[in-house]
Write the structure tokens for this entry.
Amino acid sequence: SQTLSLRQQEKALLSLSTIGDLMISKFPYVVPSQPRILQRIPVLRGRALVQLKLSRPSNATADSAQSGAANAATPATVPAAILPGLAQNTPLGTVQIILDGYSAPVTCGSILDLIIRGFYEKLP
């Protein structure tokens, strides 16, 4: 069946990912540590798995995330019948992100640093 096939594909991909992780014995290259400004930049040496839990509060509106809305005093709301998940304070889902510090150590380090400091918490 299609469900069984998808499970087998997922299992195979996870196995390949594990094999890839085991093949890396050390960090593949040196991230420059000079000048002094680079010493203050967060660097991810390896990989990190991040889970984003998405939800929308019940008082959120369709235009609340747009800073340049035409009529900011009366933002348009999303009708509950069209998108019930957006109109209630319920989780919309979880997204898993793999930050690959082997490919982009400075970018991933910066993203992880912002996550740890709570920058992305409660964003509209």
Remarks:
- The helical segments are 2-23, 36-39, 84-87, 105-116.
